[in-house]
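Customer escalation, tier 2.

The customer says the design service returned an amino acid string that "doesn't look like it belongs to this structure." They asked us to rerun it and document both sides in this ticket. The original structure tokens are below, unchanged.
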């Protein structure tokens, strides 16, 4: 398998073709459902059946690629609201460890992956093995997913 940067990388970085900017503010998108609506960050529980409680904290202001582009006030807001979402995930799922991954290698719009790690885990002791496939992923059964979304929303209200 060949690894490469997205073909439209420049347009993704400039924000011109940023899927995060285009999908901003939706309660439900093809990847998950909003569990937190902050001033700086929206939190989304991911619906792919990949790792229980896997969520994203997404910067919701103007298009930003690196956290270094934020003002001090924005950076404080971004990380504090990200931690708020993280605390809810820890409380609800009680993982062994939570991982905070600010990557942006396929979607260069500032966001942080919140990945709970469990005793039963695909790669204990190592970074989570994200699969680099673009195809449709198996989804969490809808009823269970919506119940988890409700629980997290209530905790974050
Ligand atoms: Zn963007």
């Amino acid at each position: 398998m060949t690894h490469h940067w997205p073909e439209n990388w420049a347009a993704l970085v400039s924000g011109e073709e940023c899927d995060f900017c285009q999908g901003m503010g939706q309660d439900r998108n093809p990847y998950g459902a909003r569990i937190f609506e902050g001033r700086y960050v929206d939190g989304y529980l991911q619906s792919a059946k990949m790792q229980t409680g896997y969520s994203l904290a997404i910067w919701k202001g103007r298009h930003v690629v690196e956290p270094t582009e934020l003002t001090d006030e924005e950076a404080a807001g971004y990380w504090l609201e990200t931690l708020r979402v993280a605390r809810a995930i820890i409380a609800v799922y009680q993982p062994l460890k939570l991982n905070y991954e600010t990557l942006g290698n396929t979607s260069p719009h500032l966001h942080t992956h919140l990945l709970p790690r469990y005793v039963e885990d695909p790669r204990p002791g190592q970074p989570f093995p994200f699969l680099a496939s673009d195809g449709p992923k198996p989804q969490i059964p809808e009823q269970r997913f919506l119940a988890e979304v409700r629980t997290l929303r209530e905790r974050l209200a």
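Tier 2 assessment: The sequence is consistent with the input. The first helix runs from residue 9 to 14. The mean pLDDT is 95. Sent an explanation to the customer and offered a walkthrough call.
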